[in-house]
Task: structure prediction
Amino acid sequence: MADEAEPAGGAPGAPGAPGGEPALAVENIEVVYHHSVQVLRGLSLAVPKGRIVALLGSNGAGKTTTLKAISGLLPLEIGQVRSGAIRYLGERIDHVAPHLLARRGIAHVREGRHVFEDLTVDENLVAAGYALKGRGLKPDPGLIYEYFPRLRERRAQKAGYLSGGEQQMLAIGRALLGQPQLMLLDEPSLGLAPIVVEDIFRIIERINREQGVAMLLVEQNAMAAFGIAHYGYIMESGRVVIDGPCSRLVNDADVQRFYLGYGDGESELASFRHVKHYKRRKRWLS
Ligand SMILES: Nc1ncnc2c1ncn2[C@@H]1O[C@H](COP(=O)(O)OP(=O)(O)OP(=O)(O)O)[C@@H](O)[C@H]1O
Result:
């Protein structure tokens, strides 16, 4: 688990911010789909340059929607950021088209390993070089193969025939080829065997460390995320309910009880929203 200084005023329950100059700042955004279905309700978070920040939460909390809001994909699903602001390297990006954001260095590795199945591994990487257009940078597949030697061995193979873990590696490799300054990773562990998850998370951490790329990591596998992230936010129903350095979150009694499921017989309390009530009740009982 990476160490992170305590944020100023970042007490559990009050969304704060990790220390360091932000690569990304999401400020109090509300997101609706189809002009009516509200999914994000005043969500704020920050990702400092060169850091890994985990975004956790139960199914349907709005994690994927948050990533789509940042990478500009919402309009494709008739979704919109209705209020609030998203800043990348200090500039507003909440109404910028996704291909322009990709060129500016935001790479979104979407849930479900999106690779071109009929293209080879090599061809997939060449296609990903698009993100470098106009930035005066050259794609470097050699770097990708250095991080993912298994892909080098299969470079002439069609991506559709790779294993799930190899496809996830290729999806991350494609994103990295664009030399991003911010990577959005949506559930890289999804559907993979624990040993493969360990392998991929080790590589993600190495990429962060060596390339200095900031990362916002959405994960259901909280322990895997806590293992590499510097700071974490936990969401419920479209807003952050608790945040802090991962070293603190993992030891926090409420996180353990309501999120990690280390219960002590209070299993009917299934959400952070019950925390205040629960604490009040505990005082009455004692
Ligand atoms: N295109 C869409 N149109 C309408 N509602 C949507 C759309 N995409 C997501 N939603 C709704 O928004 C809510 C949040 O979904 P989202 O996928 O962002 O959550 P999540 O936290 O990523 O969940 P999971 O962990 O299950 O992937 C859900 O209630 C979902 O049904």
